[in-house]
Write a structure and sequence with these properties.
Radius of gyration: 16 Å
Helix content: 10-25%
Oligomer: single chain
Order of helices and strands: EHEEEHEE
Distance between the termini: 23 Å
Low-confidence stretches: none
Number of helices: 2
Length: 130
């Protein structure tokens, strides 16, 4: 992002984006730089692309890809996608670490879908300041 955008924005949102960015930690740092003090960044990653066993690890396979799992289409009248997407998988600890490294305060919003027995986690980070 251009240098002139430092401390420029009050909010940023990345829904289903960071799991496709090869250097997500750098992306979070850049967003943190462009947030003004007190600014908020909300991001979300597909639940099936988060692997708790990875901890702080980030796996990015640029040359490989995987197809959306069949479970992603169970409750929809939609066929399984036939295109490959980058295989980027993270542990939730990695997302908290990215925020910490960017000097952002990290928190989470967890939403439980009692019908589908799925917990969705939104990561909310804030740039300290007024």
């Amino acid at each position: 992002m251009p240098d002139g955008w430092t401390n420029r924005f009050g909010a940023a949102i990345a829904l289903c984006v960071l799991d496709y960015v090869p250097d997500a930690a750098r992306a979070v740092a850049e967003i943190g730089r462009t947030l003004r003090p007190g600014g908020t960044f909300l991001y979300w990653i597909q639940p099936y692309r988060i692997q708790e066993s990875l901890g702080e690890a980030t796996v990015v396979l640029k040359r490989e890809g995987y197809r959306d799992p069949p479970s992603a289409y169970v409750n929809r009248k939609e066929e399984q996608k036939d295109y490959l997407i980058s295989d980027c998988r993270f542990g939730s600890a990695a997302m908290v670490k990215w925020a910490c490294n960017a000097a952002l305060e990290s928190s989470e919003i967890r939403i439980l879908d009692h019908l589908g027995d799925l917990t969705t986690t939104f990561y909310v980070v804030r740039k300290p300041g007024t």
